[in-house]
Design goal:
Number of helices of chain A: 16
Low-confidence stretches of chain A: 82-96
Largest interface: A-B, 111 and 110 residues
Strand order of the largest sheet of chain A: 4-11-10-9-8-5-6-7
Helix content of chain A: 25-40%
Oligomer: homodimer
Radius of gyration of chain A: 31 Å
Number of strands of chain A: 15
């Protein structure tokens, strides 16, 4: 009878050891297809183990398909039918070199990436709110609510926030919460249809068109004039979906005037499948004046889908964004996509709902805005005292977290960027955000100052001067 | 000169009030296109307000496109060019009825939905870990890390967990963390290509094929025999991507035997674009024996993509899942999709990383497993003492959170389901998970017991008996 040694089996259980021994014999064909194994009782006696041990090993081997059981007759070895497959036991894995991702270059000062200053987030408040939430009465919901549109409490809080802060009057049911705007774009494509053309601004946020392309929709890059996308060019493109940033265009900072807004609403009203996606990505950070009213709030035809994110206003590492759908699209969303589970953890949704409704968000935004205003003022003051003063034109400094710095220079943008790299500065130019080559406006720096520290500014400006002047 | 009253302006600031008055006059064409506004100083004097107030109001109106400024000449009303657009001010919004989502039916006992028993989650540990994380040295990363694949700490912790728990030896770089498996399916489609056919199990998890369809990929429903998908039918379909649940098929509970696993690995090796997606959705809840080894661990050809989720093992409301990519696909992922931001908040990723690496996850799973085992045992015992005993066959009770209950009955599945509804029980049959009508196996209940409370069980079985016996 089959015999295995149970000595030196270390930390394995008896049944695991037996399981492994039998499996190995099957793989090495010492036990052949169709061969009958000893009865559990006889085998146990022979091995000096309990019947339970043999039974467990057999059960595992049956579950994995190495043995099969015939009622009242016993256990037999399966035919593994290993024609054309890799020899067994598997050879060592092929020597694919270990994956070494390219280390991300960091800079002494980065005028490109969005960032949040250390110590700017009220973590202790967040932790306290989370603790309150988990100690609350909604514990059961906390574990199980996976509504496609987001939890009710958060949608209500966002609706209240939009009313107070943006003058938008919307039903919480119109809100769809999701794990970042990038994810929500793909939801919109599923909702509106992959068959339409999607128009984006050129210049614009290049990541956006990349996302449309990865989702296999036709993407049109529409040129802009000083008021935004040119309506005639949009019409010519044949696109049905228009994706714009009317409150504050990236990177030029253009605020779309009312007249152009009405032109686009009119354009949208002329086609059943036409929609406007209004991307309000940094409206919280307008540093002077009232926020610009949204396109959504003057849309009477249910053609505007509003999208915004907390990744900008809280911190990038929070992945919570939302859509505001026109009412007829809410119905379509739940009919066609309502089966999806939500993508933001219920714990974070609940915590954010309280963060909003208890006034912490407003406080946080005000604090951030003051912080950014101080950074901007310091940077502007430093520039005005620098050798560059008089040779640059500053514009669009009141909105978002960047301003434009137009240089009076003969050097190419690429040359200046390379010189900045040598100064360990990361810079970007408006010219980098164009897809088409026509109209590419040179010599305009996009100065995103959100990631700087105040004490860095004098030195950063000195380095910038050296990079620009060569 | 233009005059407005500043009485009774409530909580508005002076400049807001002035802004609104002028804007309204422009919209109502009391101020016409091209008309010049009073100079700031004269207007301020006339209104009895400060020049700053007028200046701010003008600036806002310029920003919104109602006025334009000519250097050294003053402010003029824009031409709103409102041809063909809605009349202004906007009429009341069209009377779309307020959205009343259909209230979700709840049941006295639900044998279908996955759920988590109240009080099963160690919230206090979670809050403590989050507090530790926010008080730690990584505060800066916490706010800004949005890596496409997930944060390093969590990928390392998952890799360790997979090694200990699943015997899988993988590089943390192979892991891609995302906000739920549904989201990760769409990532895989972007990674592997929308042009291929995707094969899924029939019967199977219907939501999966719905997701493929919403993502506009050709989806093939391949019939199964008692070992899983039938290889010949897969070959005939022409699909290139095979999505399977080899460790524990839903809903039949089939564990794919080794021979069939090798057949599929062999199938995949025959085409450059062929891949197998191994969905290991509930491997943590095998209630007897060792877990079944994964397909991923016997794949030497880099053809298997492993996917699993914490939404099952922690609780549904946590939206954290992950992929394990073969190494050559890691490179492709970062080349083509690495620009995406991650979809899970960094706070939750860090907290989960500690939850795993400090042993809390294992404790939690053990506790859940014991809880579910007790539920299952009680339910099986109750069934064996019920009038149904002898008229039902129970199978697949050792894995996942459901077992099969085969009824000896003349009544249709639909009849029994309707009778159960009247008993306020939610039931589902294996027959509901088929897409094709052939081979549809009747009279087999899928008994998901995860959402029950132990004290409900006697009454639930009594209701079940009444529903089945009519």
């Amino acid at each position: 009878m089959l015999t295995y040694s149970f000595e030196n089996i270390d930390s394995e259980s008896m049944y695991e050891h037996l399981y492994r021994c039998i499996k190995q014999d099957i793989l090495q064909e010492k036990l052949r297809a169709g061969e009958k194994l000893p009865s559990k009782r006889a085998f146990a006696k022979n091995l000096g183990v309990s019947t339970i041990t043999v039974e467990s090993a057999y059960a595992q081997l049956v579950a994995e398909g190495f043995l099969y059981a015939l009622p009242k007759r016993g256990y037999y070895v399966c035919d593994l039918e290993r024609k054309e497959t890799a020899p067994l036991p598997p050879p060592p894995k092929p020597q694919t070199p270990a994956i070494q991702p390219a280390p991300k270059r960091t800079y002494w000062a980065d005028f490109v990436g969005s960032s949040v200053a250390r110590d700017m987030f009220p973590f202790s408040v967040w932790v306290k709110l989370l603790r309150d939430v988990t100690a609350g009465e909604d514990e059961a919901t906390l574990l199980t609510d996976t509504s496609a549109g987001g939890i009710q409490q958060l949608r209500q809080a966002i609706s209240d926030h939009l009313y107070q802060f943006r003058g938008m009057s919307i039903d919480p049911e119109q809100i769809v919460v999701g794990a970042g705007t990038e994810y929500l774009y793909s939801v919109l494509i599923q909702l509106l249809g992959r068959q339409w053309g999607y128009a984006v601004e050129d210049p614009g946020y290049l990541r956006l068109s990349k996302i449309y392309e990865k989702n296999d929709v036709a993407t049109y890059h529409i040129p802009m004039d000083e008021h935004g996308i040119i309506p005639e060019k949009l019409e010519e493109s044949g696109a049905e979906i228009l994706h714009i940033t009317p409150s504050h265009h990236f990177p030029t900072g253009i605020v779309m005037p009312v007249s152009r807004r009405y032109e686009f609403l009119s354009w949208a009203s002329k086609g059943e499948n036409r929609y406007i996606i209004e991307d309000d990505y940094d409206c919280e950070f307008r540093l002077a004046g009232r926020p610009i009213p949204t396109l959504q709030s003057i849309d009477v035809m249910e053609k505007v889908i509003y999208i915004n994110t907390f990744s900008k206003s809280l911190a990038p590492a929070f992945r919570i964004s939302y859509l505001v759908l026109p009412k007829h699209l809410v119905t379509r969303f739940y009919d066609t996509l309502g089966f999806y589970s939500g993508t933001v953890s219920c714990l974070e949704q609940m915590t954010l709902a309280r963060f909003l409704s208890e006034g912490y968000f407003e406080k946080h935004i005000n604090r951030m805005r003051n912080h950014y205003r101080a950074l901007r003022d310091k940077l502007l003051a430093e520039l005005r005292q620098s050798p560059l003063a008089g040779k640059v034109r500053i514009s669009e400094e009141n909105a978002g977290l960047h301003f434009l710095l137009e240089l009076d220079t003969q050097r190419s943008d690429e040359e200046i960027r390379a010189a900045a790299e040598r100064e360990d500065l990361r810079l970007s130019f408006v010219s980098q955000y164009y897809v088409s080559d026509q109209n590419r406006r040179p010599h305009v720096l996009v100065m995103n100052y959100s990631g700087l520290e105040e004490r860095q500014i004098p030195e950063a400006v000195a380095r910038l001067c050296r990079a620009v002047e060569g």
